[in-house]
Amino acid sequence: MIYLLRGARVLGGDPRDVLLRDGLVAEAGAPGEVDAPGATRVDADGLIALPGLVDLHTHLREPGREDAETVESGTAAAALGGFTAVHAMANTSPVADTAGVVEQVWRLGQAAGHCDVQPVGAVTAGLAGRQLAELGAMADSAARVRVFSDDGVCVSDAVLMRRALEYVKAFDGVVAQHAQEPRLTEGAQMNEGAVSGRLGLTGWPAVAEEAIIARDCLLAAHVGSRLHVCHVSTAGSVEIIRWAKSKGWNVTAEVTPHHLLLTDARAESSPAGPYNPIYKVNPPLRTDADVQALREALADGTIDCVATDHAPHPVEDKETEWPAAAMGMIGLETALSVVQEAMVETGLLDWAGVADRMSARPARIGRLSGHGRPLEAGAPANLTLVDPSARSAVDPHGFASKSRNTPYVGMTLPGRVVATFLRGRPTVFEGKLT
Amino acid sequence: MKRHLLSTADLSREDALLILDTAEQLAQVSGRSIKKLPTLRGRTVVNLFFEDSTRTRISFEAAAKRLSADVINFSAKGSSVSKGESLKDTALTLQAMGADAVVIRHGASGAPHRLAAWVDGSVVNAGDGTHEHPTQALLDAFTMRRRLGELDGRRVTIVGDVLHSRVARSNVHLLHTLGAEVTLVAPPTLLPVAMDDWPCEVSYDFDAVLPKTDVVMMLRVQHERMNASYFPSAREYSRRYGLDPERMGRMPDGAIVMHPGPMNRGMEIAAEVADGERSTIVEQVTNGVTVRMAVLYLLLSGSEPAIGGNQ
């Protein structure tokens, strides 16, 4: 199949015609200059073309919690959100801590075909934090794992973290740390601050994140390895990462869409009433000052990328009292809209910046050579077309995800993914799954 | 229109005074040999208790019965709740049975707020986690008013485990609304980290505050807190923050001593103080029934509830 995208604004620039053929970007040129007999013409007038988005942090829940999400449903949600690759987190059941499990997830992704599924391997066996999982076997498997994470649990043991950082150097891996000092966060329910004090909910202090990030940066520097910091949520964490980068250390970081837009005030006051656990997430929503610091850090590159931490949960795990509820929120189908709202419409990032933070850099961190490439002749035809002028209220009933736990329900957000192409084949066309 | 009593922060000064004044009238009933009014005949009040609290439950039960309401006690133990039924399903069950009011005690902060979204009847918070206990604060205010007169300008010192205390939170809001000046006293470990917007003063020094107080309210401090290093030992806590006869001697004449119970005698309060003339602890229990009658009366009698939060 050959597609000619007519008048697409590549990275928000002037309109261009882009020809997709044989899975590659065959040609890109001024409108009317690209000739393509037999091509399906796509009117992309007013649409922005971005390289296909890459998510470093997705919970697809399969195997084990197919009631919340499957590889099929989660990757369909990803494609609708403009993603062409997602990293599937390891905290499944069984845990993705062996070559067998990561290959299974990888194959399920191939079979679903909505986007590439790159499994993340667990750092420690069973996420138990006692001994290393077989990192090399996962790296050498068909899934070619390069990102390792115990996400959901912090690798809090300093020796184990050091060994993991050292060990993955052998295959250019990276350890993605869920930074949460466990003793400081026992029973923690939400950000520790004015709101938690008023609501009487156990606090999750910023220092519990920052202390681990500081330690891990020092460890990564000491052993000369790559560290990636998951879902940075505090202004203090930003300062530490900025300092580590200024030293030239190989530290990268991600921020979630929800931490760019929402604060802990939602726990106390929201359209859904107080104590609604739709806003319960780990790390927790923080304060306005943190949100501002995170936006600025993403804009100046201190934080490398946006990652969704898409965390599906069934209704019964959220329709409960706050402390009993599961932590997490879904995000694949709203990520780009939230980034447009928080970063583009505020003037902090242009569309080239969005492409860098949501495609190029996460692909580089995950070592996905086929993704995040400039939309130039010869590159794999992984891209998404976005209508930036659309605005709509978020309605989870239209989501492809099996779960509905979005904190944005009813909010009006900008932007709409019109089409997504995976190696030249549309996975989403005219806003719908193909 | 307001339908529930979830937090004292939802009460206006008019609401709060209406409850206290109504309780004052109802107190006369408690003094009679036949302590019953026909006001809530035919209405159903469910006591939904997920935590053991015999004191609070029987207080609400007595209050509802004195108003002639039908009372159903629903204890989490031995019920479908212990078999894993969700709060929402429990709420729907009560709803289907036609509960006009649900009095809920729950270990999770905010559980009454969630319940209020799932039932049509009124919800009364009888203590939620480490959040609030509104009727305790109302009975405390009622007790203070009976002993000291109006609360405007009265100085109230609340001492103890503020961090985990639902009594402290409810009292701070209500007493502020009623014009009292509140000071919280605790070791720094037992205070929330960010309290700048609380309408009260905070001190670590009990002895400095004592001479300038009209009411000292001692909070229960659980021995287990010591194991989590909130303080070194029960003895040290008692020395620094306990109310013993010597400390009580430094209180102004006429100042009173309160405790929401149950007490740890010898820990936060000495037996001589608890049993002394300044202590209102037994009165608080009596007043609890009266104030809860007033709350149920105002929420349930007539077609439009007169107090509480409209959520």
UniProtKB/TrEMBL annotation, chain A:
Membrane-spanning segments: none
Lineage: superkingdom: Bacteria
Active site: 309
Binding, Zn(2+) 1: 57, 59, 151, 309
Class of the enzyme per the UniProt entry, highest EC level: hydrolase
Ranges where the Dihydroorotase catalytic domain occurs: 48-235
Annotated substrate binding sites: 59-61, 91, 282, 313
Catalytic activity: (S)-dihydroorotate + H2O = N-carbamoyl-L-aspartate + H(+)
A Pfam family this chain is assigned to: DHOase
EC number of the protein: 3.5.2.3
Residues that hold Zn(2+) 2 according to the record: 151, 178, 231
Keyword terms of this UniProt record: Hydrolase, Metal-binding, Pyrimidine biosynthesis, Zinc
Cofactor(s) required, per the database record: Zn(2+)
GO molecular function: allantoinase activity; dihydroorotase activity; zinc ion binding
Cellular component, GO annotation: cytoplasm
Cofactor comment: Binds 2 Zn(2+) ions per subunit.
Biological pathway: Pyrimidine metabolism; UMP biosynthesis via de novo pathway; (S)-dihydroorotate from bicarbonate: step 3/3
GO annotation (BP), single: purine nucleobase catabolic process
InterPro entries documented for this protein: DHOase (IPR004722), DHOase/Allantoinase_Hydrolase (IPR050138), DHOase_cat (IPR024403), Dihydroorotase_CS (IPR002195), Metal-dep_hydrolase_composite (IPR011059), Metal_Hydrolase (IPR032466)
Similarity remark: Belongs to the metallo-dependent hydrolases superfamily. DHOase family. Class I DHOase subfamily.
Purpose of the protein: Catalyzes the reversible cyclization of carbamoyl aspartate to dihydroorotate.
Name this protein carries in UniProt: Dihydroorotase
Phylogenetic placement of the source organism: Bacteria, Bacillati, Actinomycetota, Actinomycetes, Streptosporangiales
Gene (name only): pyrC
Automatic annotation (TrEMBL), chain B:
InterPro entries hit by this protein: Asp/Orn_carbamoyltranf_P-bd, Asp/Orn_carbamoylTrfase, Asp/Orn_carbamoylTrfase_sf, Asp_carbamoyltransf, Asp_carbamoyltransf_Asp/Orn-bd
Gene Ontology biological process terms in this record: 'de novo' pyrimidine nucleobase biosynthetic process; 'de novo' UMP biosynthetic process; amino acid metabolic process
Claim: Transferase is one of the keywords in the record: yes
Keywords: Pyrimidine biosynthesis, Transferase
Domain of life: Bacteria
Bilayer-crossing regions: none
EC number: 2.1.3.2
UniProt binding sites for carbamoyl phosphate: 55-56, 105, 133, 136, 261-262
Cross-referenced Gene3D superfamilies: Aspartate/ornithine carbamoyltransferase
Catalytic activity line of the entry: carbamoyl phosphate + L-aspartate = N-carbamoyl-L-aspartate + phosphate + H(+)
Gene Ontology CC, one term: cytosol
Residue positions binding L-aspartate: 83, 166, 220
Every Aspartate/ornithine carbamoyltransferase Asp/Orn-binding domain range: 153-299
One GO MF term attached to the UniProt entry: aspartate carbamoyltransferase activity
Subunit relationships: Heterododecamer (2C3:3R2) of six catalytic PyrB chains organized as two trimers (C3), and six regulatory PyrI chains organized as three dimers (R2).
Family: Belongs to the aspartate/ornithine carbamoyltransferase superfamily. ATCase family.
Function: Catalyzes the condensation of carbamoyl phosphate and aspartate to form carbamoyl aspartate and inorganic phosphate, the committed step in the de novo pyrimidine nucleotide biosynthesis pathway.
Protein name stated in the entry: Aspartate carbamoyltransferase
Gene assigned in the entry: pyrB
